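Supplementary Text 2. Reproducibility record for the structural model of the 461-residue chain.

All settings were left at their defaults, and a single model was retained for analysis rather than an ensemble. We include the record here because the model underlies the residue-level annotations in Supplementary Table 4.
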Amino acid sequence: MKCRQMTIGELRDTYKNGQINLAPPYQRKPVWKTKQRLLLLSSLFNGIPIPALIFHKQFHTGTLKEIYDVLDGKQRIETILHFIELKKIRDEGRLWVEFINPHTNKRDYLFYHQLDNKKVNKEYENILEKFWTYKLPIIEYEGDLSDFFGNNVASKEVFVRVNSTGSPLKKHEIRHAKCAGLFFKLGDMLEEKYMNLFVNQWRVCSSTDTKRYLLHEFILELCVAIHLNIYSDRRKKLDELLSQYKWTGREIVFVRKGFNKIIRCVKDIFPNDSIKYTRFKNKSDFYSLFVVLLQLLNKGYVLDSRKDNRIIGKFLSEFSKQIQRLDPKVKKFVIPNLPESEQKLLPYIISTRQATDSLRNRETRHKYLMSVLKEGFILKTKDNTRIFDSSVKDLLWLLQKQNKPRCPNPTCNEKCKKYLTYDDAQVDHKYPWSKGGRTTLENARLICSSCNSSKGNRQLV
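Retained model, structure tokens:
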């Protein structure tokens, strides 16, 4: 390990040469606010010392260059690069520096492109040249650090220790630094795919949550529920599955498909992003609804009937309004006198007050939502048998009254074969099996192979 200095001009050139890696696997997302970035720039332009940047130097065989992984100082470097217009920070506008004009004694706010103007720079006594020559303290090491006993300390462990003394790391930021693998990458993929939905459309999470990996953590919690097919106690199972469990590619695909399917179901229940007007935009309520829908799907209940889902959505919206009206009446240690219909809602309300992610409170919400959705709406289950018996085709063929029966072409398929032949005809459900259609003779019909392959799960007409 060695200590040295690097001017801001040298930092700029090193970055432009592709030698500074701001995003090693253990790094976190930007968390600084504009106020913190402006304060840093003020310090740099006023010659005030700032903390050292910590680099881990490695030789990259692909580019034949020395690469500097940033262990500490990412936000300081990004602020400088954003200010000089080399790197754009997401959701951050142009940064400025506040000066007192040496000639007019008035306060000025200048952007980089203004300082880069020769006339302005000269007016401010060549301030930009002084900025480029500002010396940044650097701590640099190669390979692994060693402790006093000669044991190696990995770079990701250095990152966790160093950053625990600055802007405090959230628990999931530490997980991000220490954990890598298929499951964590699945969280990355789903977060990227659904960030706009969860943050801007449904408002289940905030933009701040995304910066501190809290959306990523929440998505992985939902993935844990899919893997286990049940709710879990806080994030204990998440930690276990990240640190100890060896995931297979097949398990990752199973979880990913399950997640996508439930999200489609929620969209159907709450069309036009109407979930944001209900209490189910709260993480605790959303989690419970997600797990209930998961278990109903796994038990064979039909959840892709748009008509039925709209009814469920209206009920959940009314339920949400009722809870919101009742919530203020329920005070700590004081249970008001309420009608019997409202008394039944008390356990649910109490379970959303404190420790909402505890096993007991998740169980309370789960039982209530499961009972009203499963028993209250009498959701249909899918037939255990999906494939028709071979004798059904013979029966249907015998029941045809024409010698040359026409294909009903239920979906107006342009490639329909028009007429049925025994060899080509296929048996399919009139009402789709996926929507609760029975695998019985009454729900069976002959169509040509082309129409059967194009039909999907649409109801035959």
